[in-house]
Specification:
single chain, alpha+beta, 11 strands
């Protein structure tokens, strides 16, 4: 029996003049043994704990802990990493390779139907233009500068609606020419399918 000095509770027994209260050492030891037996894990709990530890080991083997400094930007989805601040401007790049010079057209001319006449500001390497054939035949003969042979180089022609009369305009290059000299370009102009001298045009020799 555990005994203690001091004022005993009412009715407490006395041994050698001291108040004795509480439980005996034997009773206390039995209480501890009983508590240990109650909280001892049973077979089911032991099995659960064993499986849980096994699963943890498997997870750790399949997904080992990430070490600091081992993750890369590719390991994250878009938007998960914060955008960094703007970096300094890089040095100026090297001068690029010089491109191949483009080829200019050999000749071009803007022809007014009134006259006819060449528009000087829009003409290069054409020296003259004249009517060919009868009046209102819609045929023009254009003389190019020296070195441009109508028999060896093509030409492209298009009607100019802003300086022409009527509608449904058309223009054509006729080569070989039927009404012009071999050294000239021959152009035929029409309105609604009929030859006409009232169609201005532009001719280009690439």
């Amino acid at each position: 029996m555990e005994c203690a000095s001091g004022q005993p509770p009412p009715g407490a027994p006395r041994i050698n003049g001291s108040a004795c209260f509480g439980v005996s050492r034997v009773a206390a030891r039995k209480s501890l043994q009983l508590a240990s037996a109650v909280w001892r894990p049973g077979p089911r709990l032991t099995s659960v704990l064993r499986h849980t530890r096994s699963e943890v080991r498997q997870q750790l083997a399949a997904n080992p802990p990430v070490k600091n400094g081992t993750l890369l930007a590719a390991d994250f989805k878009a938007g998960q990493l914060p955008r960094g601040s703007q970096g300094p401007q890089g040095p100026e790049g090297l001068q690029g390779v010089q491109g191949v010079p483009g080829q200019s057209v050999r000749a071009y001319a803007h022809v007014e139907d009134d006259g006819p006449a060449l528009v000087a500001a829009r003409t290069k390497n054409f020296t003259s233009v004249t009517h060919a054939g009868a009046a209102n035949s819609g045929r023009y003969c254009l003389t190019p500068a020296a070195g441009i042979d109508p028999n060896t180089v093509p030409a492209v022609v298009s009607p100019d609606h802003s300086l022409s009369s009527g509608s449904d305009l058309a223009s054509y290059v006729e080569q070989p020419s039927a009404f012009c000299a071999a050294s000239q370009f021959e152009v035929l102009t029409q309105q609604a399918g009929v030859n006409s001298d009232e169609v201005a045009f532009t001719i280009i020799v690439p």
